[in-house]
Amino acid sequence: MPFGIKFKGEEKITPRKELLPMRIDNFDKLLEKGGVERGSTLMVAGGCGAGKSTFCMDSVYHSILEGERAVYITFEEQASKLRKHMLENFNWDMDKLEKENKFALIRSDPFKIARSVEAFLAERKGDLLVEVQEIQLPFTPDRIIIDSLSALSVAFMGNVENYRYYIRYMFEMLEKYDSVNYIISETTSDPGVYSRSGIEEFLSDGVIVLYNKLVGNRRERSLEILKMRCCDHVKQLVPFKLVSGKGVSIELSKEVREEIAGWK
Ligand SMILES: Nc1ncnc2c1ncn2[C@@H]1O[C@H](COP(=O)(O)OP(=O)(O)OP(=O)(O)O)[C@@H](O)[C@H]1O
Ligand SMILES: [Mg+2]
Predict the structure, then answer these.
(1) What is the reported pTM?
(2) Residues with CB under 6 A from ligand 1
(3) Could you give the number of structural domains in the chain?
(4) Which of 48, 63, 148, 209 is the right S-S partner for 224, CB 3.0 to 4.6 Å?
């Protein structure tokens, strides 16, 4: 395929059904098995500023500290801005981890991918030559973040058929590797629909929704594990905070602890 994600050296890796913790403060306690399976793709959905990028980077940063490697593919935010914000806000020095070859931040042009998919589908009908548009990864990662589906879908400029084709292909491609994948989806602030084409949440192994709801005259953050194929999980909304110098902070309320206690 001309628009895949390629790993240097290695091609197909059979997913090991090993569990990896998410390593976000208290989050693993919300999962019966305490982590997610390698090879799973998780959709992280939420409105603007809900904390999607931070949530994923928190998981990745703490996983790198435990000896893993990760890649962040961004279709939108300028890579330098993302690095700067993560360092200034949460004290995560992604630049240092990049230099140590444990992390890679890759900016990919979604319009080039969209054009490439279009050309590929046209060629199948006997038309054009296909422009090569592969995302080359510098190493085989344990975690991959894709930020975001929304930026990608905009690039397809209303061609839902082509977008769906690419999404299916992307999920199939990610499934072949044994990384834990985070696909960020931008939604309205209180979503009833979690993705642009509606198929992404069905293709995902897990869906995590981040809310930033207006309560009275202020916003309160909470998260919901809407789906997790690998195990049972907390079903209620769990409040969280974004804390300077720390990242995601999840305090387990009495209700949440009771739900967890119910599994045993
Ligand atoms: N130092 C900080 N302490 C606490 N909260 C912060 C800090 N810095 C930023 N934030 C909060 O984090 C929010 C942005 O988080 P993040 O970028 O992860 O959200 P997002 O869902 O990815 O947003 P977008 O839709 O723009 O991609 C800001 O709007 C702000 O409320
Ligand atoms: Mg973001």
Answers:
(1) 0.92
(2) 46, 48-54, 89, 186, 242, 244
(3) 1
(4) 209
